[in-house]
Amino acid sequence: MNSMVRFFQVVGLSVAGLLVGTAALAQGACVNDPARAHELRVLDEIQITELMERFEVVAAPQRLHTLLASLVTASGRLQQGPAVHLLAYEDKDLNAYAADHGMVILTSAMWSAQEGLSDDELAAVMAHEIAHIEGRDSLVEACTNLHRMGQPTMRMDDARDRMALEMFNPRSTLARAAQQQLHAQEHAADVRAIELLRAVGRNPQAMVSVLAKIHGSTPSALNLLMGSTHPALRERLAKAQAAVDAVAKSGFRPSELAPTR
């Protein structure tokens, strides 16, 4: 599921510079090519279909749809689309995903009484996924990998298979570069989520608390496989807390954020 975008898995503040180098490599013909975006969407929809065949699709509580709608409205970057929809499935593990074409996917554990996540924390999870959609992070990642491999015309499914193999090779320079990009995207998504939380009147500190709760949970086999796509928890919490502190100190409200309705 690595490119759908990673597990709970924003652009802004101090970590934005981490993305400049890698994103710039991918901002050429590939990222701006509608055919490439469509190719990735087809792959993502296949993954989503397979996921929904394995798990029972469930209705998320209405309050989650309301939270998501408020966050999308606050995103000036999404005013021209894509439309963002919420999909959920039954699972005991805390997971969330995003697809560039406008899909946020949650497991039912997210709103279970056992996990006890607050509405602010649930908003933080969805804000993080919205941030990935804003940045078209899956497409940027895929195009950058094609650039790194020197294979700009390679099919994306073939490139994905190649990178999956590279991730198991501890000496792979391709894998190290890809991991660094994924980590930067995750840090940036956390920071952007903090901006969005503030814009809709939610507590930005929820970003830090929900990261600690999710990454402190017992990992599933898939979590273990995909752990390398996410930064170390201590580092991630420290950067998220620094972003929360910066927002609190400055009263930061980015001009690109549309006012909530």
Number of strands: 4
For the largest sheet, list the strands in their spatial order.
1-2-4-3
Whole-angstrom Rg: 17 Å
Which structural class matches the secondary elements? alpha+beta
Can you put this structure into words, describing what you see?
This protein is α+β, with helices and mostly antiparallel strands. It has 10 helices and 4 strands, in the order ααβαβββααααααα. It has helices spanning 16-26, 34-54, 62-74, 119-134, 137-149, 156-166, 173-199, 205-215, 221-226, 233-250; strands at residues 57-58, 85-89, 96-99, 103-107. Residues 6-20, 218-227 and 254-261 have low confidence and may be disordered.
In short:
By secondary structure, this protein is an alpha+beta fold. It is built from ten helices and four strands, in the order ααβαβββααααααα.
